[in-house]
Recover the amino acids of this structure.
């Protein structure tokens, strides 16, 4: 992890290894359809039972420590095996942005994969059980041990938005998992936290979609 301070931006570097596509088996919250709506987030009616934290997976049950002033402009760069993806982080989603920075600084995302991708919706990453080395079973529901409240932002679910998916629709979002949207989906506005958008490396994102 390299944390580089700049006059205009604060860069977070971490590795996310991409998987171009994966069968929709064992997917976690945030993907699938309900009520016949294709591409809508899947919200479980029953809270999943707590499971033991897999070996080597970090957990922070007390939540993220204050890491950056997320009310000021920052950028994050995801270094992947397909190239870099640059993300502008939104100042009106300080809790999600601070959590993102906190986990990156802890090396939480290092060596993890985009574990799900569908070209008509999004790619999802940030599950610590979904590691490229295959040390754990990729569950699709892994977390850092906490969730975050939904934050309303000025930007909605537009193409290339970076979103913290819902745990409880309209109330809580994942602490670590995030999606990059391949196309707009305004149905989800206000139900999840849009905390950034891709501003560089669109070709790399297109590779995931493909």
């Amino acid at each position: 992890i390299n944390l580089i301070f700049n006059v205009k931006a604060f860069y977070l570097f971490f590795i996310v290894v991409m998987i171009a596509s994966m069968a929709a088996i064992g997917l976690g919250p945030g993907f699938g359809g309900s009520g016949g709506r294709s591409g809508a987030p899947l919200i479980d009616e029953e809270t999943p039972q707590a499971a033991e934290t897999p070996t080597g997976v970090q957990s922070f049950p007390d939540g993220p420590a204050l890491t950056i002033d997320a009310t000021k402009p920052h950028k994050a760069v995801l270094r992947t095996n397909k190239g870099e993806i640059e993300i502008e982080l939104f100042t009106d989603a300080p809790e999600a942005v601070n959590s993102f920075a906190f986990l990156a600084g802890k090396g939480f995302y290092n060596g993890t994969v985009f574990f799900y991708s569908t070209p008509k919706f999004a790619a999802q990453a940030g599950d610590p059980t979904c590691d490229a080395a295959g040390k754990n079973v990729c569950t699709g529901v892994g977390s850092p041990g906490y969730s975050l409240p939904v934050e309303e932002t000025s930007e909605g679910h537009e193409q290339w938005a970076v979103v913290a998916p819902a745990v409880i629709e309209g109330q809580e979002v994942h602490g670590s998992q995030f999606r990059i949207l391949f196309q707009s989906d305004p149905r989800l506005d206000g139900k999840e936290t849009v905390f950034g958008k891709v501003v560089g490396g669109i070709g790399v994102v297109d590779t995931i979609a493909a």
